[in-house]
Amino acid sequence: MTDLDLLHFEQLKKDVQAQYLKEYTPSHDDISKWKGIDIIYFQEDLRKKAKGNISEKSFYTYFKNSPVTKIPRIDMLNLLSIYAGYDSWYEFKKQHLFSGELLQEDPDLSNEEVKELEETVAQSPVSLKTEIQQVKTDFKPEENFDLQKSNPENQIVNEKKNIEPNPVIIKPNKNFFKKNIWAIVTTVLISITGLLGFKDEIFSKTYKYCFTDADRGTSVINTLEIRVMKENESPLIYKIKPGECFYYSTKDKNLIMEISAPFYESLKVNRSLENAPGEELIEMKPDDYKMAVNYFSVKDANGNPELLKQKRSQLENLISSNAVIYQVYDNKTYGIERLDKQKYITLVTTPTTSLKNLTVIEMKKDINGKIISIKFKIASTDEKNK
User: Which pLDDT tens digit goes with each residue over 290-336?
Assistant: First the structure.
């Protein structure tokens, strides 16, 4: 490894970042600041486009630190180069040469590189180790090749016949295996990675889930948030617009989903997929209290004093005097403000344009049906336009 290799790897990280930003909008443009769901979505895109994967630990080792003090193994370098649009790590470096840099196409391997290669092969599937061992076994350079000699003085020349030239036997290059071993290993690794990638597509099945209002028999009126729970992994989060269905491809035998929406009760769905149908309609039970509080706000009062008075009276009856009420601020200076019952009622019954962006996040009620807890948010205009 040279200092130029470290510089090339920093270039490759920028290309990988640029490739991802072409189609996705993570929480931050700088790849070193990605975390959580950003890393999960990147891993999915890497598997889709390059048919390979890097662990979350490797991501933190090589992408969260800049500049790095060491570069990944050649198989990861090739995988990231393919994702960025190049044939291999060598091809990437070839197209990003520094001034005065000479790139050797087939350099002899150092003792450290040979040791690293042996470790890579040892961790690879049995079929890969067998193929490398077979190459070693079959390659037995001859030590005593001699060119056939021709002595024209001792030969009888027949002018009527053409004399065929003697075949020339060339000694095989002793460094053939050392010079080409990286290419052999890379090719086999890419082939195996590609096979594993296609294996997921071959054995996976796509399931379709649509959602309906249990009371009204119509499509749900809110955007749904679906969290797919996977064992030993962070949840996968999907946003489904009103009226749309959720499509999910998997080869797993079980599916666990947590479904939530502002005006509906949260629902946990646990399905065995061994004999499950390809399509399913899921009923969402409306949360009448969330809908009521949203309705009783003056989004449609139009300054009518009688209607305002009526809605205030309805909220007085719905909300307990000891209710805990929070307003959530979702911006750069994230915070929470606590309101008392009267302040909240005044807020939601005062005609303002901001009430059009009011969303009830969470609501709880006691055994008597009184609302004892409300958490709500008023989105900014910029946020609504995202």
Answer: 666 665 555 555 556 777 777 788 888 889 988 999 988 766 555 78
Residue range 37-76, pLDDT digits in tens: 889 999 999 999 999 998 988 988 899 877 888 889 999 9
Q: Where are the beta strands (DSSP E) in the chain?
A: 205-213, 224-229, 236-240, 246-250, 254-261, 264-272, 279-284, 319-329, 335-339, 358-365, 371-378
Tokens of 88: 């291999």
Whether the CB-CB separation of 92 and 10 falls below 8 Å is answered with: no
How far is residue 20's CA from residue 71's CA, in Å, rounded to a whole number? 21
Question: What three-state secondary structure class fits 257?
Answer: strand
Which CATH architecture fits 288-384?
Roll (3.10)
Q: DSSP string of 314-371?
A: HHHHHEEEEEEEEEEE-STT-EEEEE-HHHHHHHHTS--GGGGGEEEEEEEE-TTS-E
Residues 6+ apart with CB under 8 A from 112: none
pTM of this prediction? 0.34
Block mean pLDDT (10 aa), the chain, length 386: 81 91 91 88 92 90 84 92 93 83 54 54 45 45 43 46 50 59 81 67 81 82 87 90 90 89 85 85 78 58 68 86 86 74 84 71 87 84 52
CATH of domain 205-284: 2.60.40.1120
Residue 348 amino acid letter: V
| Contacts of the segment 328-334: beta carbons below 8 A, 24+ positions apart | 328/361, 328/375, 328/376, 328/377, 329/377, 330/377, 330/379, 330/383, 331/380
The closest of 78, 63, 68 to 14, measured between CA atoms, is 63
Rg (CA), the chain: 33
| Residues β-bridged to residue 371 | 319, 365
Which pair of structure tokens corresponds to residue 316?
């007085």
